[in-house]
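Much of what follows relies on a compact textual record of a protein's fold. The record below shows the convention in full:
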Amino acid sequence: MKIIGILTSDFRIYYDLIKCLKKRDLPFASLSLDEPIPVNIGVIITTKDEEDKIDFPHLVLAEPDIELTIDIALRTMKGKEKFRKLMIGIDPGKRPGLAVIGDGEILTTAQVSSPEKVSSVVKRAIKSYPAEDMVVRIGHGDTTHRNRIINSLSKFGLKVEISDESRTTRISDTPDIDAAIDIALKSGVTAKKSYKVEPTEGELRDIQRRSRIESKGRVTISMAEAKKVAKGELTLKEAIKRSEKNTKLE
């Protein structure tokens, strides 16, 4: 099996690459200019200043975005300059599941920390995996988070579809990612560029309940603050801090 090689004297880039590779559980080897390149190396990550010193056919220059650098290295090892079809599936929720599938192969998956953060993961996928045809598919459930995600993607001008996510969730350690894979493979209806975000009363009460838990019972944020959290205008932590501050002033 071919693996990624790292060859650079830039300690910061070297450290960031190793940290990211270990986090993603990807095999790699640290290389030196003074030693021959092992036969199991499929691609070498280095810097622009050092590329002329390395005699190897498959070099990837480190980007400021280390995750992007590794994605490009993995694509280079596959010998893929461009995919015919790239499908990005998203299972909406407070922490959305995301899967990228290129020409029928699962390229990467992620559990994203918030609906708005999905756009940065999608942006990296577009750069990492160039494709002739690309579509983003998002599950139809969880309307509030779904609409927040669609609105955050509108700036990219991508083809976005809303897919029926019925019977997509599997019983596993990563149900959101499993659902995202299934969603990516299911065609849907074309989404509008943007949607109104109108959280339900039940969602707002749940956010208030979570505020009591997060603050260890010190505060319950107002319905108005809960609505801002539901719309992505405030994080729950920010809303709790604001409520605690207002309580002290009373």
In short: Residues 201-214 form the longest helix (14 residues). Helices lie at 11-23, 66-78, 118-128, 143-153, 175-184, 201-214, 223-230, 236-249. The first strand starts at residue 3 and ends at 6.
